[in-house]
Design a protein that fits this description.
251 residues, alpha+beta, Alpha-Beta Plaits, ten-stranded mixed beta sheet
């Protein structure tokens, strides 16, 4: 029985510890590469799936979005089951649904939400450190929260990341930037229309520097307003997760 060709939207979750990022690379294990391998085991003959956003090596995802054109006869739920049977344990397809033929997970996205986790402890904690950054000296939570309020709005974030393509714009609109504390773990949530390369990890690193007294909020504000330089540094990849990609008319 031959099915009709359709475009499917896939929501992916993965533990990024053993992935060299999301996008396919030659001789590197990536989320896209493993997904395409699984698709080929069930009869897909396409060249490439589409991915909503690039995640760095070691970064996790709960709501990465992909799209694939596939001639499949058994419906979305059975496609999800077939893919998960073929995928490795650190990658899963959480949702499958049929999409418009012209749906593009990257270019149709209206926002992306990331979460970063950290905790304060002078001693190594190998289990917690798989998914959260251990920070010491302890951070001042009020300074973290104050620093986070510098970023919402439309700004040039050149001091906080690089454009995805040479000569690309570094202007982005941040809708949400906030910290919360639960069970001894700090959580940073940031949502924007798009992000620069390594922007979230840079934002976290700078805010931690403020909360440890190594930078001032005025220095951060000046870097945002005038693109002045700040000390180099990135928060580790393993504390970061892509939570959700939002599309028009979709929550």
């Amino acid at each position: 029985m031959t099915g009709k060709m359709a475009r499917y939207q896939l929501i992916l979750a993965y533990d990024g510890a053993r992935f060299e990022g999301s996008q396919r690379q030659a001789d590197r294990r990536t989320a896209q590469g493993e997904l395409e391998k699984a698709l080929r085991t069930i009869g897909w003959t396409g060249r490439s799936v589409l991915i909503a956003g690039r995640t760095d090596s070691g970064v996790h995802a709960e709501g990465q979005c992909a799209a694939v054109d596939f001639e499949w006869t058994h419906g979305p739920e059975k496609l999800r089951a077939a893919l998960n049977a073929a995928l490795p344990p650190d990658l899963a397809v959480r949702v499958v649904k049929e999409a418009n033929p012209d749906f593009h997970p990257r270019f149709d996205a209206t926002s992306r939400l990331y979460r970063y986790l950290l905790f304060c402890d002078p001693v190594r904690d190998p289990v917690r450190e798989r998914y959260a950054w251990r920070v010491w000296p302890e951070v001042d939570g009020s300074l973290l929260q104050s620093a986070s309020q510098v970023f919402p709005g439309r700004h040039d974030f050149a001091a906080f990341g690089s454009p995805m393509s040479r000569g690309g714009s570094t202007v982005r609109t941040v809708m949400l930037s906030t910290w919360s504390l639960s069970d001894g773990e700090w959580q940073f949530q940031v949502q924007a229309d798009a992000f620069l390369y390594r922007m979230v990890r840079r934002l976290v690193h700078v805010q931690v520097a403020v909360a440890q007294g190594r930078l001032t909020i005025d220095q951060v504000r000046l870097a945002l307003d005038n693109q002045t330089r700040l000390p180099a540094g990135l928060a580790p990849a393993y504390g970061l997760s892509l939570v959700n990609v939002t599309y028009k008319n979709q929550q």
